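In this supplementary section we document a worked example of the pipeline. Step one takes a protein sequence of length 201 as its only input; no multiple sequence alignment statistics are reported here. Step two produces a three-dimensional model, which step three serialises into structure tokens for compact storage. The input and output of this example are shown verbatim.
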Amino acid sequence: MTDFDSRARDWDNDPIRGERARAVAEAIRARVPLSQRMTAFEYGCGTGLLSFALQPFLGPITLADNSAGMLAVLEEKITASGVRDMTPLKLDLIADPLPPSRFDLIYTLLTLHHIHDTNKALQGLYTLLDRPGVLCIADLDQEDGSFHVDSEFDGHNGFDRDELTRKLLEAGFANIHFSTCYETPKNARLYPLFLAVAEKR
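The serialised model returned by step three reads:
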């Protein structure tokens, strides 16, 4: 069982996570003209907090994660809500074959910094986007490592925006825009989150 599997049942009990997801959803809506005709894909969906916040404004959503525990909770939430067109998918973006579907919108929240191979992840997300399509990445600005100081973490300590822009360009994305979308409290301080919006043309 992974750390995220073991934390899944209590994940939504932290009100900061819900507040953060709603703030990121509002930031996405402010930057991207959403439509119920759009197909969407969330990677690293966890219990679906961000997708539930965006669901009224989108068409079918595929919610992918590599944590079976998170997906089990998500499936229960989808059933309880009565929402249609939300489909969970177990997927490791780095290790598994990509699904055949392509999407108008892809978004992630605090996921990319957990993935060692950023370049491969971005290439996979580029492939999953239809043309034209939009990618939205909400993640940590580069920090000093204190965000994960209380856990066994071996990912990235956030991202430098210029470096991530370069990686997005190398993956094929264009028209890249960054903004600060939230400051998440943890360990008695605030950590800025950026929203990067990039296009596949």
